[in-house]
């Protein structure tokens, strides 16, 4: 059994290396209920210690992969864990490979992002600053178009891009000097491609 688990030690070390310092990887020996190996140890546990805590998290060994599931570190940090059941040549479960990722930092970043993006009092955009800025109008229209469709500029197909060009044309934005250059840059196409799209749009409206 020990030999079977030994073959998984490099796997545990590799996973821990790529996720370091945010994760530890533990191999449990189901034969004796003890820890066989720990990579990037984040607790006081050591190989040879009883692994009752981790094994108690597992309700069934029928699945090859169990989780992800939440855990709490001894010091109170939130963890996200996933477990792979290790089997021998006879498909008997002989060990567990548990990956425990410290997500407390990401939770803090998420909370900070929510606070940073929250406006207790939103002031209206000063029209005096934007009334003559046709670039801002183009940006707003493009942003609204993409938001309604839940996509990005890179995700637009030809038909969708021409629908966007049609909306820009309806607003008279192509009549503004230098606007076509800016629109082409925003859409990530050449001026020639943009004017071909505009020509097709206007022909369809005739």
TrEMBL record:
InterPro entries: DauR-like (IPR039446), DauR-like_HTH (IPR039445), YheO (IPR013559). Residues 138-199 form the Transcriptional regulator DauR-like HTH domain. Pfam families: HTH_22, PAS_6. Residues 5-111 form the YheO-like domain. This is Transcriptional regulator. It comes from the Bacteria. Transmembrane segments: none annotated.
């Amino acid at each position: 059994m020990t030999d079977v688990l030994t073959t998984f030690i490099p796997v545990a070390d590799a996973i821990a290396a790529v996720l370091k310092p945010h994760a530890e990887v533990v191999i449990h020996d189901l034969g004796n209920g003890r820890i066989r190996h720990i990579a990037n140890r984040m607790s006081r546990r050591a190989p040879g210690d009883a692994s009752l805590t981790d094994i108690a998290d597992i309700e069934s060994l029928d699945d090859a992969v169990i989780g992800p599931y939440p855990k709490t570190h001894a010091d109170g940090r939130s963890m996200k864990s996933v477990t792979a059941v290790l089997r021998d040549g006879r498909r008997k479960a002989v060990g567990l490979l548990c990956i425990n990722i410290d997500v407390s930092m990401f939770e803090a970043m998420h909370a900070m992002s929510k606070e940073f993006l929250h406006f207790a009092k939103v002031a209206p955009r000063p029209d005096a600053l934007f009334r003559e800025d046709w670039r801002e109008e183009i940006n707003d229209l493009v942003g609204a178009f993409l938001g309604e469709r839940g996509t990005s500029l890179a995700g637009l197909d030809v038909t969708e891009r021409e629908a966007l060009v049609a909306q820009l044309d309806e607003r008279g934005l192509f009549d503004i000097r230098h606007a076509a250059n800016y629109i082409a840059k925003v859409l990530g196409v050449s001026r020639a491609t943009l004017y071909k799209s505009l020509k097709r749009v206007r022909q369809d409206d005739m």
